[in-house]
Amino acid sequence: MKMQITLTVNGDKYELLVSPLSKLVDVLREELGITGTKKGCGEGECGACTVIMDGQPVSSCLVLAPQADGKSILTIEGLESRDGILDPIQESFMKKGAIQCGYCSPGMILTAKALLLVNEHPSEDEIRNAISGNLCRCTGYQKIVDAVLDVTE
Ligand code: FES
Description:
By secondary structure, the chain is α+β, with helices and mostly antiparallel strands. It has helices at 24-31, 76-79, 88-95, 105-118, 124-130, 142-151, and strands at residues 3-9, 12-18, 50-53, 56-59, 72-74. Strand 3 and strand 4 form a beta hairpin.
């Protein structure tokens, strides 16, 4: 049995028929073709699938589609302005070399963005705490922390 949900993703509204057990990450990627959100573990362990839902960072592999009904979702695609200007946090990740393979980057950047929305000048400890659920196998985290610190200056 399918159910109808309404999602606003990056400012665009979608009416969808979904399985009640489908996950938000799969709805974004497979139903809507919004593939910037990455799926790693699928079990809430890696943070690759992080999106911002009504202002809060969430692991979209842990959100069932019905739980997202009526919510506003921001994915990495929505961080860039409609005329192609990157968000300062995206610029900072590039400038600081905080991206290597890039698989964790959308989730990492959205986690950082969610932190900056509530705390414009986070300390290094606050940044490390915020990204503690986002795993990166390449950078050793320091460049990521530096990128977030840099955007606050
Ligand atoms: Fe969602 Fe790993 S894919 S936390």
